[in-house]
Amino acid sequence: MFTLRSLAFKAAPYLVKTQTLNAGFHTGASVCAAKVAVVLSGCGVFDGTEIHEASAILVHLSRGGAEIQMFAPDVSQMHVIDHGKGQPVEESRNVLSESARIARGNITDLAKLNVSDHDAIIFPGGFGAAKNLSTFAVDGPDCRVNEHVERVLKDFHTAGKPIGLCCISPVLAAKLLPGVEVTVGHEEEEGGKWPYAGTAQAIKALGAKHCVREHHEAHVDQKNKVVTSPAFMCETKLHLIFDGIGAMVNNVLKLSGK
User: Fold this and answer.
1) 136 CB contacts (<8 Å, ≥6 apart)?
2) H or E stretch covering 131
């Protein structure tokens, strides 16, 4: 990945200094700061990470003084969607490479994530969580979860370290952590305000408890140290989504004890 970055800089030498400085939001936190892993699933809401959600998470973590490291699995996407047309296209993309777009090139293969190096972990939403990190988009409650996603979620849970998830990604916790409490918002569509409300029933089918919350709220499962927020499961204004993600991030940092 760093080789690719070097090649990109060689093609645009006048951008080298600017790009290197701007990549610094990932580091520079104080010694006692919470070290938070953020797991991405590609780049773009329909086949990867929801970019606004990822950005909101990074802003709130930065504001909270956290030290951030981003990860993604080195696997092929389930498929590629033309986001202008909303249609699949005949090409293949790699989840790690696509996630690097959001991470400004500073990203690590999820296979290398070690729970002992971090105080908390957060998963943004976007269809990538249900297509690339798992098969939930196709298989629903019978889905499979990527082996590295499963490993890190179970490792953080066993270690008693907080886990944050938003949008559709709470289904990952529902699948892997028996009896966990999560929210994806409301359980009825309410005229299209909550277009993915049916996800709540799938969460219940997995044996998890679904808790109704508003778009600006987060639910905290104190026992399991799992914090979730609806984010774009709700059709609402962007700043309200931002606030809800902030509630999730702030509670994750609080549970980390840092």
Assistant:
1) 129, 130, 143, 168, 171, 172, 175, 202
2) helix 128-131
How far apart (Å, rounded) are the C-alpha atoms in residues 43 and 233?
Answer: 18
Q: Is the dihedral of CA 220, 192, 46, 243 positive or negative?
A: negative
Separation CA 146–CA 123 (nearest Å): 14
Residue with tokens 């309200």: 240
Instruction: Tell me, rounded to whole angstroms, the distance of Cα 9 from its chain centroid.
Output: 28
Whose CA is closest to 68, among 99, 41, 108?
A: 108
User: What is the chain's alpha carbon radius of gyration, rounded to the nearest angstrom?
Assistant: 17
| Integer Cα distance of 23 and 241 in angstroms | 25
Element (H, E) at 72: strand 67-72
Q: What's residue 30's pLDDT?
A: 55
Q: What is the pLDDT of residues 144-195, one digit of tens each?
A: 999 999 999 999 999 999 999 999 999 999 999 999 999 999 999 999 999 9
Which helix (DSSP H) or strand (DSSP E) does residue 52 occupy? helix 51-63
pTM comes to 0.89
Please tell me the predicted confidence (pLDDT) of residue 258. Answer: 84
Known active-site residue 166:
no
Handedness of CA 145, 197, 42, 51 (dihedral sign): negative
Judged by DSSP in three states, 142 sits in helix
Q: How far apart, in whole angstroms, are the C-alpha atoms of residue 169 and residue 185?
A: 12
Sign of the alpha-carbon dihedral angle for 93, 97, 101, 107 = positive
Residue with tokens 């927020």: 229
The catalytic position among 43, 143, 166, 167 is: 167
Residue stretches of the chain with pLDDT short of 70: 1-31
